[in-house]
Amino acid sequence: MRWEEWKPFYLDIVDRLGLDVQADRMATALLTNLLEDIDPEPLLRNLKELVAGCTVIVCGAGPSLERHLESVIESNEFDNAVYVAADGAISAFVNQGLNCDIVVTDLDGRMEHIREAVEHGTLAIVHAHGDNMEMVRESVPNLGKILGSTQVEPTDNVFLWGGFTDGDRACHIIAQNAPKCIVLAGMDFGTTAGKWSKPNHEVDFRASKRKRIKLQIAEELLTHLMSSSRIEYHVLG
After folding, report:
1. What is the pLDDT of residues 189-231, one digit of tens each?
2. Structural domains of the chain in order of their starting residue, each with its CATH number
3. How far apart are the first and last CA of the chain?
4. Which member of 79, 151, 170, 226 has the lowest number of beta carbons within 10 Å of its beta carbon?
5. pTM passes above 0.85
6. HEC per residue, the chain
């Protein structure tokens, strides 16, 4: 996605959440430096090869995740699907011994599960923003060959796909790599946050006011993405 295209969406989010634009840019510069020895081109080709022409199930970390995972696993319709975990959703895969092809994360989820998935071949796309610089600095050097993501101006090795939360960003990433269709699982936009969304929760919990605003933004961005794309979308109920 071109910065000029994404900028109006981003500035609206900045106003609604009081984001620090300069901190987002600093985070992008940090991730750019940390990834300077990794050639992103083979990883971008891998991403395209995984997704192009396939049914892709993008899994958010909402309360419905486990139920949705069970339904798609039991359905023959999704036998050859590509699975994408949004951040903490990777823990649901690990806990059930399931493979995940791609994880999109700003490093809020359980790092041991993200690392375990990457070690087993999951492609990681790590997002840097003003609030996670310490985690980026601490975790990225230990994750091996990953792709970098930003929500401000991109660099040569940190990319702008659009999207704000891990879930809707994952959909933006997939949509730009020619999937056959996108299936949304565990994508809940209500007042309850899923237990997988944060490492220190054993059960679903009430979303904070800020989290509810983020979920509203995610829903708006997904609605725009689906309405402006020719890609077929299915939202699991």
Report:
1. 888 777 867 777 778 878 889 999 999 999 999 999 999 999 9
2. 3-235 (3.40.50.10240)
3. 29
4. 79
5. yes
6. CCHHHHHHHHHHHHHHHCCCHHHHHHHHHHHHHHCCCCCHHHHHHHHHHHHCCCEEEEECCCCCHHHHHHHHHHCHHHCCCEEEEEHHHHHHHHHCCCCCCEEEECCCCCHHHHHHHHHCCCEEEEECCCCCHHHHHHHHHHCCCCEEECCCCCCCCEECCCCCCHHHHHHHHHHCCCCCEEEEECCCCCCEECHHHCCCCCCCEECCHHHHHHHHHHHHHHHHHHHCCCCEEEECC
Model confidence band, residue 2 (pLDDT cutoffs 50, 70, 90): very high
